[in-house]
Specification:
Blueprint: H1 19-41, H2 43-66, H3 77-86, H4 95-110, H5 123-134, H6 136-139, H7 165-173, H8 185-197, H9 204-219, H10 224-229, H11 233-240, H12 251-271, H13 278-296, H14 303-311
Helix pairs in contact: 1-2, 1-3, 1-8, 2-3, 2-4, 3-4, 3-5, 4-5, 5-13, 8-11, 9-11, 9-12, 12-13
Amino acid sequence: MANKLIVTAAPHITSADSTQKIMGRVCLALCPTLIASVIIFGVSSLIVTAVTVAACVFFEWAYCKLMHREVPIADLSAVVTGLLLAFNMPATFPWWMAIVGAFIAIVIIKQLFGGLGYNFANPAIVGRIALAVGYGGAMSAYPLPETVDALSSATPLAVSGNLGAGEYVTLLLGNHGGVLGETCAITILIGGIYLIATKVISPVIPVTYLATVAVLSFCFGMDPIVQLLSGGLMLGAFFMATDYVTSPTTDKGKLVAGIFLGVVTMLIRKFGNMNEGVSFAILLMNLITPYIEVNTRQDKLGIAKKKEAAAK
């Protein structure tokens, strides 16, 4: 026989995509926001990003060398962590504090748990929370664009009441105070759409997350547009809540995760002591992801019939 059957172990579904290609697309999707942050806040945005990315790559290389492991920096996952961590910092954030955040994200959260694929939470999220707790003053020292108005004098989430159409445009373009990745909503949206179009992420979590926030903000008497375009919601929904390792894999699980994220975020924004709740919502979702997976897992083929037969 010219054609022979080759028997191999499952899984039998293959893909031309590699970790490097996927992470490369994520980096490309983050580039518009990086460019926007440089335009809005100046070259200091680029410096903070460069320091954080370099620190993440170095810590991953150094730890793997120290532990005599294969160095995986070519997969670009450390670069993505560095970019996301930098996007959670203000442009004037001290570089040595940024390095501390990179150490926490890469060494403590990622590598100590076994490296990529074994971390229990998104490294950049935990790095941001640790910096917010340890260096709260520096993390909230938001630089302002050259054009300063009533909205840009504080983060939009701190502004009470409904805003006008002009302020909505400001939120889209990012001409207000904040961290690098939480100002220009339109570039985050462009990057998120690119990730969905290239099938890097599923739209279920971000769409469900944003829809839940919109509905609850309306129910709470808050401006839905402000809630959607402000803070880290867009960045978190498209780039952090969709992390392969720390988010559910089933469609049902993703739907549950999106609703959970929206509820927790809005409860913190409405009733908490802080204006923002995205980071804590994503961290909590990361922690309960194994339970979501177990309870939304599809039964194996034939299991349902066996259960029906056993019930008779």
